[in-house]
Amino acid sequence: MRGRSGVLTVDRGQGTAEVHAVLHHVETGEEVARLYAARLVKIAGGGVLLSGDDVVFRGSKSKGDRYRQSWWCVPLAAKIKTAEGAST
């Protein structure tokens, strides 16, 4: 995925201590992408580099295939509306 803008959040996987980085659509709040086993690699140049796994599930009972991925995240200067309606 290249050049997506969105809201980046971090959460824990259900029933596990694994950290997930989640990219949400700015307007709808829908999940766009999830980085499993996410870890912060570097903070530099006005952004952060995250590393983790993209998991592709092939069926309802599949554990999924893991592919290493890195995300370079740079904050935008635009105001974003929160769920409560306030601008940040």
Structure, described:
The chain has 88 residues and is mainly beta. It has one domain. It has no helices and five strands. A five-stranded antiparallel beta sheet has the order 1-2-3-4-5, with no helix packed on it. The chain starts with 6 loop residues before the first strand and ends in a 15-residue tail after the last strand. The model has no long low-confidence stretch (mean pLDDT 82).
What layout of secondary structure does this protein have?
Layout: E1 7-12, E2 19-24, E3 31-44, E4 47-56, E5 65-73
Antiparallel strand pairs: 1-2, 2-3, 3-4, 4-5
Short synopsis of the structure:
This protein is 0% helix and 51% strand.
Give the terminus-to-terminus CA distance.
Answer: 26 Å
Number of strands: 5
Largest sheet: 5 strands, antiparallel
Please work out how many helical segments DSSP would assign.
Answer: 0
Can you give the mean pLDDT?
A: 82
Structural class: mainly beta
Number of domains: 1
Give the strand order, joined by hyphens, for the main sheet.
1-2-3-4-5
Unreliable spans are none
SSE string, helices as H and strands as E? EEEEE
DSSP helix fraction: under 10%
- Measured by DSSP, the beta-strand proportion falls in over 45%
| Approximate shape | globular
Mind telling me the C-alpha Rg?
14 Å
